[in-house]
Amino acid sequence: MAFPLRRVTAMTSERFINGPSNAAARAWLARNQWPDGRLWLWGPSGTGKTHLLTAWAHEHDATVLDARLFSTSSAGGRIRVQGNLAIDNADSPGDEATMLHLLNDAFSQGDRVLMAGRLPPSRSHFMLPDLASRLRATATTATGEPEDDLRATLLLSLLADRQLVVSQTVTEWLWRHLPRTGNALVSAVERLDEAALARKQPITRALALEMLPDLLTPEG
C-alpha cells in the first residue's frame, strides 16, 4: 500500500537553480525597492515562481498567502498582515476584495508585496476595477521555460528530492524525449515515482514508456 507521503523540499535561495531563463526575475527580487513597493512575478508552471517567492519571503520576513484561499468570509473579517507580504497564485484570487485590502494595507504601512501567477496582470481578469488598475500599474518580471543546461540539472534535482536512484542512461533518455518545459519534468517525475513505488520496481525506460505516453516524443 503506497501512501502519498513526500519529503518537504526547502525552497531556499541556495537550492534554487539559476539560469538565463530566470535571471531577470532574480535581478528584480534582489532590488531593495520596487515601484510602489509591489512586484508581480509570472511565468509558466514549473519554472520556479513559487520557489523564488518562498525564498524571498524567508529572506525578507514576509507572510506567505495563497490567493486561491481568499474568501468572502475572510474579507468580512479583514485579514490584516503586518510586514512584507508574498501572495502566490495572485492571478486567481478566491476573493478580490481581500486582495485589494491587503494591497492597500501594505501600501499604507510602507511594506513590500511580491505576487506570483502564471499570467501577467494585463492578461488576468479581475472584476474589481480598483484591483485591476492597481495590478496593471504594478512592475512585472517573468520566468521562462528552462534552457537545456537548466533542464538537465532540474531533472536530476527532482529525482534527488524524491530520493530516486535512476541510471544515467535512463536519465539522459528522459531528458532527450520529454517536452522542453519545467512542468513536463515535474509531472514526469511525479508519475514515475508513484508507479515505481506501487510496483516496487526501479524506474526504467520501459516503465517510462508505459507511464508517460502523452509526454514522450517519438524516438525517430
TrEMBL record:
Domain of life: Bacteria
Annotated ranges, domain Hda lid: 160-205
Lineage: Bacteria, Pseudomonadati, Pseudomonadota, Alphaproteobacteria, Acetobacterales
Matches recorded under InterPro entries: DnaA_dom (IPR013317), Hda_lid (IPR055199), P-loop_NTPase (IPR027417)
Protein name as catalogued: Chromosomal replication initiator DnaA
Leader sequence residues: none
Chromosomal replication initiator protein DnaA ATPAse domain residues: 11-69
Source species of the chain: Gluconobacter potus
PANTHER family on file: CHROMOSOMAL REPLICATION INITIATOR PROTEIN DNAA (PTHR30050), DNAA REGULATORY INACTIVATOR HDA (PTHR30050:SF5)
